[in-house]
Amino acid sequence: MKLVVDSNVLFTFFWKNSVARELFLKQDLELFAPEFALQEINKYHDEIMRKAKLSPHEFNKQKHELSIYIEFISIEEYSLFFMQASEITPDRDDVDFVALSLMLSCPIWSNDIVLKNQKHFKVLTTKEVIETFD
Q: In the list 11, 59, 102, 131, which could disulfide-bond 54, CB 3.0-4.6 Å?
């Protein structure tokens, strides 16, 4: 299954005993995110380290591991879908994820209720991703 993973789900990769982290390791998943999501991880690295109780070394190690499981796509590759995404996205912060989802013709993995409740593109929650493997 191919999925675009939003930033908040990516952040949970750093938590110990994270369900999302276990799912990232599933070989049946092809996971993608906009390169922009890496900037978000770097922007919030202090908060992530504090919440996940990670040292800077552990954080960097896990960030590298994350890049093994997630293919980060440059904005140039999905920019043709920006206009369409901005017209149908309820939140401006999600435009990159929606544009990438449109380009790849796959759902977005997100636990964002507003994103989930729109009708223009498919969004799967973590619970729904788990259910696909049960």
A: 59
